[in-house]
């Protein structure tokens, strides 16, 4: 990893663009595919300017066909390319689910490494931007359950760029979830040039001895706000940004939970079968005797993500997270 | 539509070359070469069914009856081309250079069987229907991007044309002029469902119109028609003219798989009649007889040679090292994750150090 010295101020969207730009420049085998990503620069402008810079043969507007272009990208990946495909919204990935489940994630295993699929699937996800229905899903655990694909989800510009570069360099398929609510909500200093954030490593955002709060993506600002509120009441939290949902950073979680003995997990995905369940299993396996209270989950409900008229009720809020922190403290 | 897409033949059922323009194509050397390849894969197919009946391999999908489609198309390929077979196209795969041992291993539940030898670009057989069609479109597109003259062939059945991936794959390939040949074997049944229930279209070839790509319907039991039209489509692909769709009309004599009973859904006399009239090997036998070139001793010789090769592959398959449980864990990712490593460690410890 080359350490970059200069920085620039970028939003999360711009940081992803920067990562893609660097990798298109760096590697001839990187190729971008998706709907409206060329001339239009993507519906969120993530690929803005890239077709102009690298040409139509490397930044490719595809027909409207999630299964078709994900399937074609599998063929390209098996034949020497590193495709980065954009699914316009995670809620539109389902037609491609078969290609990802039956081929992308298991071609290496089927052929014992003879054919591999070094591909990145980018997908904006999540609610909170008053988008139409199906544009707001947060179904990451469908993919964390799927063997053979890694799932990452940055919450900020620095991680987004570093994880994007790491995902493109990864020899296996990576689902790259982009919190659209955080796309432009803040700016931060991001190093220029190439750097990576290791897949499988989380990050501790605040330090506290009382409660471990685990979140990722668009739930990080929610968790942080709750932790700040609780600090006013004298409760100190370790806020952990998971960053990678598979494979989970076991050590980061276990070290924190062994210290605090109390855990609150925040995710906007539905509760049942969500990543929160995996985290509680992990805590059960590795930190059972350290527990001072049962782990709490603050999640989206076991209901389809509602129309945006209801999304403020559906999404976890700092208030719900703070209540959960109080609950584990009072147990 | 049938008139727009007439069934193209080079040799008719009586073993006669239908047009003078093909007289030079149909040489004794080619006939004998095509015949011996078809005999070889037919013998493999029968051996595999027999092994399944004896419990020596798992469920098996036979292709007997479709030999001309698989041999003629595979022989039209160049060594550096790509092949995307389904579970019923291992005849084509072995003609293209796949290892017989590995094909047996695949049908005996072993990942090792999915590895093609000698750098051959043969994808593992697609099990979910039509899902290989976008792969072929993409791999062929990649060849074009690299600036090679390599092409891809993609096999699929009549049932696959009802799937969304058929449309998405053909559409993608036609938009980007991928050098790919979409080779449909219309054996007229998707397990039990006849093609009349599969689609309202009179032909599969006509679907090419929608993608503005060449589409032809051929006699899939005429190995020369298959070879000729596949060669033409491959040439177009190599010349940058994009994909083509070939509908090869054929018939599987037997069951969908060894777990299937075709007597439940179709009259077995029909298969017997097809075998007596339209069989791909019989057609070449008739040509050889018409030309006074048929030689029982030669047939016996190629059959014995094939039997030896197949028996050797069976022995290799059966003497192959037993399944190593580590394989389950070691090929999910290039670098294993901690969850997989933990599961592997605990499991191998439980079952003992010998791995079983």
Fold and architecture overview:
The complex is a heterodimer of chains A (331) and B (356). With 331 residues, chain A is α/β, with parallel strands linked by helices. Chain A folds into two domains: 7-191, Thiamin diphosphate (ThDP)-binding fold, Pyr/PP domains (Rossmann fold), CATH 3.40.50.970; 203-330, Rossmann fold (3-Layer(aba) Sandwich), CATH 3.40.50.920. Chain A contains twelve helices and 14 strands. Chain A has helices at 12-26, 50-54, 66-78, 97-104, 107-110, 140-144, 157-169, 220-232, 250-260, 275-287, 311-314, 318-330, and strands at residues 7-10, 30-34, 59-61, 82-86, 120-125, 150-152, 174-179, 188-191, 203-206, 211-215, 237-241, 244-246, 263-270, 296-300. In chain A, the strands form three sheets. A seven-stranded mixed sheet of chain A has the order 3-2-4-5-7-6-12, sandwiched between helices. In chain A, strands 9-11-10-13-14 form a five-stranded mixed sheet, sandwiched between helices. In chain A, strands 1-8 form a two-stranded antiparallel sheet. In chain A, helix 9 (250-260) crosses helix 10. Chain A is globular, with a radius of gyration of 19 Å. The mean pLDDT of chain A is 97. Chain B has 356 residues and is α/β, with parallel strands linked by helices. In chain B, helix 6 links the parallel strand 4 and strand 5. Chain B folds into two domains: 7-321, Rossmann fold (3-Layer(aba) Sandwich), CATH 3.40.50.970; 322-356, no CATH class. The interface between A and B is large, with 46 and 43 residues.
């Amino acid at each position: 990893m080359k350490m970059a010295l200069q920085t620039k101020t970028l939003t999360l969207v711009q940081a992803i663009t920067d990562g893609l730009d660097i990798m298109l420049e760096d590697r001839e085998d990187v190729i971008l595919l998706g709907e409206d990503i060329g001339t239009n620069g993507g519906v969120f402008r993530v690929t803005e300017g890239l077709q102009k810079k690298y040409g139509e043969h490397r930044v490719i507007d595809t027909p409207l066909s999630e299964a078709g272009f994900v399937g074609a990208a599998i063929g390209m990946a098996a034949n020497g390319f590193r495709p980065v495909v954009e699914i316009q919204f995670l809620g539109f990935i389902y037609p491609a689910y078969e290609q990802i489940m039956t081929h992308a994630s298991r071609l290496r295993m089927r052929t014992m490494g003879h054919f591999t699929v070094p591909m990145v699937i980018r997908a904006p996800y999540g609610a909170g931007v008053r988008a139409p229905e199906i544009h707001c899903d947060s179904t990451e655990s469908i993919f964390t359950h799927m063997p053979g694909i890694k799932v990452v989800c940055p919450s900020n510009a620095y991680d987004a760029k570093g994880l994007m570069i790491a995902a493109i360099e990864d020899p296996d398929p990576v689902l790259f979830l982009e919190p659209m609510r955080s796309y432009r909500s803040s700016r931060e200093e991001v190093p220029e040039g190439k750097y990576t954030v290791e897949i499988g490593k989380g990050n501790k955002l605040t330090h506290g001895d009382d409660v471990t709060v685990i979140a990722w993506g668009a739930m990080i600002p929610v968790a942080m706000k709750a932790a700040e509120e609780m600090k006013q009441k004298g409760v100190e939290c370790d806020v952990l940004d998971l960053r990678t949902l598979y494979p989970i950073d076991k050590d980061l979680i276990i070290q924190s939970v062994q210290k605090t003995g109390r855990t609150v997990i925040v995710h906007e995905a539905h509760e049942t079968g969500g990543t929160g369940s995996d985290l509680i299993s992990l805590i059960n396996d590795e930190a059972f005797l350290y527990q001072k209270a049962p782990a709490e989950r603050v999640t989206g409900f076991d209901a389809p993500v509602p129309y945006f008229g209801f999304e403020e009720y559906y999404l976890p809020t700092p208030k719900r997270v703070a209540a959960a922190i109080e609950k584990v403290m009072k147990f | 539509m049938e008139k727009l897409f007439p069934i193209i033949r080079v040799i008719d059922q009586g073993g006669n070359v239908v047009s003078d323009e093909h007289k030079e194509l149909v040489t004794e050397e080619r006939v004998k070469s095509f015949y011996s390849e078809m005999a070889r894969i037919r013998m493999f197919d029968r051996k595999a069914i027999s092994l399944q009946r004896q419990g020596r391999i798992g469920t098996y999908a036979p292709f007997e009856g479709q030999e001309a489609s698989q041999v003629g198309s595979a022989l039209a390929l160049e060594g550096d081309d790509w092949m995307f077979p389904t579970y019923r196209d291992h005849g084509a795969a072995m003609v293209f250079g796949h290892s017989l041992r590995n094909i047996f291993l695949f049908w005996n539940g072993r990942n090792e069987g999915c590895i093609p030898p000698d750098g051959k670009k043969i994808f593992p057989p697609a099990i979910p229907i039509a899902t290989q069609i976008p792969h072929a479109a993409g791999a062929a597109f990649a060849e074009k991007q690299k600036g090679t003259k390599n092409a891809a062939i993609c096999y699929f059945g009549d049932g696959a044309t009802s799937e969304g991936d058929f449309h998405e794959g053909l559409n993608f390939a036609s938009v980007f002029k991928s050098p790919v040949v979409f080779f449909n074997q219309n054996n007229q049944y998707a397990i039990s469902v006849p093609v009349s229930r599969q689609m309202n279209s009179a032909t599969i070839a006509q679907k090419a119109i929608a993608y503005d790509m060449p589409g032809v319907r051929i006699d899939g039991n005429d190995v020369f028609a298959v070879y000729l039209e596949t060669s033409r489509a491959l040439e177009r692909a190599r010349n940058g003219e994009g994909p083509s769709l070939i509908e090869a009309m054929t018939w599987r004599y037997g069951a969908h798989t060894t777990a299937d009973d075709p007597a439940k859904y179709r009259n077995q006399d029909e298969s017997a009649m097809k075998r007596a009239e339209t069989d791909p090997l019989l057609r070449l036998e008739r040509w050889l007889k018409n030309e006074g070139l048929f030689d029982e001793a030669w047939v016996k010789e190629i059959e014995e040679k094939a039997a030896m090769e197949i028996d050797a592959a069976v022995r290799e398959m059966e003497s192959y090292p037993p399944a190593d449980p580590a394989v389950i864990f070691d090929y999910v990712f290039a670098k294993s994750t901690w969850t997989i490593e933990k599961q592997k460690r605990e499991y191998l410890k439980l079952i003992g150090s010998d791995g079983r």
